[in-house]
């Protein structure tokens, strides 16, 4: 097949708007597999569905918008041409042993250049064999192969996606059936982009194999799926000026001389597996999906002409979805919770490559993966970093006929970072955020024996203020009503309130006093059993208590300040340090 030279007769006609095509995610589906089945690129499919926060975590019932296969209509002066070749062949079956077989082969290829200069090519071939027995039972099998590639000059990206797969199904004359299949897909995306004075080259890829099986009959259904694969990413960032003389694609952390000062190289590799289970009995449905991921992360920074900082170590992650609901033929409701946990154990050190010791230590890391345990000649800033991140969120999915509705509930997030130094001392930071409340950060320091240095503990809360909340915060932190508009906090600022342990104890006592007149404040200063809260419990309550968003947090502090003498409108100056960012 060839493409004739571009002329006016080849320009596509403007077609009337078409209804948005959608696809409902099935058990075992991957983003790459769906793209292959729909004949579109993985990159375009992700771009068309910004509501999907993590393309690697799709759930059955999710509805994806499918991008158009045809390129945009040509505009004057921007010629566009597309060639599509859709070939299919069908051969009637020859009766064998009382059975009839039918074989079908379908090939679809496409080549296109749209008005923005985006070039795409691809194709898919599907072979299907269907057998019908004299008793009315049917069985079918199919296999497919696909390849898609696209270049987007405006975004500086190139992507390739390839897949193969097969499915098998058996259906009896009474309608009971069982099916199973496998789909493999590989996707590679790379691109070059310059923004805010930094040029970044990225390359990422994944290969996945998914197995799914199911059986159904009457009101009983059962299906299970398993997906496994590997993911990798490589990213180089450098100052825009440096990128003019050094191509980011040529940079390698194994050759520090190839890295201009200011260059950062990040590499991640991981393997993952997903197990999925869904069952229905009459109208009761349950669903579980768990994804495990483990791998390594490497960050190399060229901090000076002869200095390189390395951060490296293993990481693990788990994603789990559990749901229960009801499932009818025309409607279904599923209420579930999605939990995510990530951990990383990282080591970091800076190597001075101008010294024999620093260069030898860096070469040892490259060759054997060994990171220094202590500072020394040519080696500095040695630390060990342990990270833990988690999130939990509820979700309600409702399907009524053609209508699909997903509602996200409250989301709780948190992370912990512990940094250990060669002398045995350590520093820990915990950040928590409950639902839409302001985030809380607790910072601690530990001596070489592992004992916390109590005087170094800090509690911090970060709020974004508008005109009203800025006035409330000014009164609370100065104790002066006249400084409501002239105080240190102004509308539109982000403010961090930081308390030492002793200052948090003072705030607790002030809250307990104000709570004598305000039941909501009394609840903050006491436990569920009515006992006085500890400093730690009170600090967490400030972050976890309902209606703890930016405005209500400022209003709560204002009420604590106001609670000492309501009649005379005297305000107490609250403790804590303000940092305005």
From TrEMBL:
Residues 21-66 form the LysM domain. This is LysM peptidoglycan-binding domain-containing protein. Residues 81-90, 123-134, 243-261 have a biased composition (Polar residues). Gene3D superfamilies: LysM domain. InterPro entries: LysM, LysM_dom_sf. Residues 100-111, 135-154 have a biased composition (Low complexity). Residues 51-163, 242-262 are annotated as: Disordered. It comes from Ottowia cancrivicina.
